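Hi R.,

As promised on Friday, here is the backbone we talked about, encoded as structure tokens. Could you run it through your design pipeline when you get a chance and send me back a sequence?
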């Protein structure tokens, strides 16, 4: 127990902020200390605004956030990677599509394909490869007109293909006629 120097009420030590006094606690209780701080802030409002502005600039504009984020990532790298793995396994199709959309935007191509549209395309082809007709666990998004030739990531340019057929076709036009989706 300790007596507050302002309100003169005896309170438990948990009601006092830590400090470098002989008992390791401030002489005022937390409530009295917050009142004193509030009064000081109201009395010195211009100084506080100036300091707040300097602190904001220091933290947000001088690379502080970038540095802080980099340090935090280094300390929590394994935890972040585990969360990313879990998310990827839970939302695999969405992650793959996100990567494809990024690549299309980078190549300055139209990219309007959604996960729902991709699911519709797979249903139309009955979850089979458009070229060989094989049913596989994972069908790839095959561009009828390849990306290198300006093919977009849209409903009308994507068909499902197995890995083998997609790799064989590479950046050529399809050797066999393929039914395109006209929705």
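Update: got your reply. Pasting your designed sequence below so it's all in one thread:
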């Amino acid at each position: 127990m300790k007596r507050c120097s302002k309100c003169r009420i005896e309170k438990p030590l948990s009601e006092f902020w830590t400090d470098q006094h002989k008992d390791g606690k401030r002489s005022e209780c937390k409530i009295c200390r917050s009142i004193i701080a509030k009064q000081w802030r109201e009395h010195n409002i211009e100084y506080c605004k100036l300091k707040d502005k300097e602190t904001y600039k220091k933290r947000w504009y001088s690379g502080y956030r970038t540095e802080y984020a980099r340090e935090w990532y280094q300390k929590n790298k394994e935890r972040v990677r585990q969360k990313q793995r879990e998310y990827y396994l839970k939302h695999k199709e969405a992650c793959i599509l996100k990567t494809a959309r990024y690549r299309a935007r980078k190549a300055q191509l139209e990219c309007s394909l959604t996960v729902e549209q991709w699911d519709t395309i797979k249903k139309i082809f009955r979850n089979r490869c458009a070229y060989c007709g094989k049913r596989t666990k994972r069908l790839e998004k095959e561009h009828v007109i390849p990306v290198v030739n300006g093919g977009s990531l849209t409903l009308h340019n994507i068909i499902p293909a197995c890995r083998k057929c997609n790799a064989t076709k590479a950046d050529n036009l399809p050797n066999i006629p393929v039914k395109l989706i006209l929705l």
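One thing I noticed while checking it: The mean pLDDT is 87.

Thanks again,
M.
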